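ok here's Aquaporin, seq below lol
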Amino acid sequence: MLHMSKMLVNSFVFTRAFSEFSATALFMIISCMGGATNDQDSAGSLISSIIYGLATVVVMHIFGFISGAHANPCVTIACCLLGHIGSSMMFTYIFCQLAGAAFGYFLLLQMLSQGLTIGVCIVEPLDSLSNVQIVAIETFLTSVLILAWSALWDVRSGRFLDSVTLRMGCLVTLCNLAGGKLTGASMNPAKALIPQLFNGDPESILLQLGGQMLAAFVVPQIWHYAYTPCYRPLLIENAEIRNRYLQP
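and the structure came out like this:
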């Protein structure tokens, strides 16, 4: 019986882990492929942002009921801090997300011609922005994303889950439109880091990563202490009723 229980647990963990791997790989392929042929003018930025949002919709629709379809280490960290998954599952998710992002980006490079692979999905902030401004913008945009996920996980939002994938996709599109030309607005360490690792320049996105991780750790605390009510235990004054319902 114990052996069977361990097999079920391992199977459950593997299914969720592989779901995050697949979700992040698919997300990287779709979102980065959409920007491979677009110029960075207004029309190109609009198309890239819409594709980014629709990629979120696709991933959440396919894998959301399996693992939650985080496809983002910041989302997973926030999920753990809010108590929805354990720390061991958090590290498993993050490892699978980074591995899935690398696998998806590698597949994308194989599917594109050599001329299109140059600079694909590379995040570059505006030269006119200071380091503080870059961190602040990325922190703000990622905070909006984490707030949306926190609202999704809250039990009070149970009656507002219709078309949630479309609404999350619209939110990601809006955030990318707002900050895409400023910092890249990836709001996702896996999406920001992996292309830079393939191109050998991970130091260039340390400010964006710092802002994203800051949001991942701070926003769950704000949600917990500012937006989650503290329920007091039920007080039953009548001794007869209290003994009837509270005694074993």
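fwiw The chain is about 70% helix and 0% strand. kinda neat tbh
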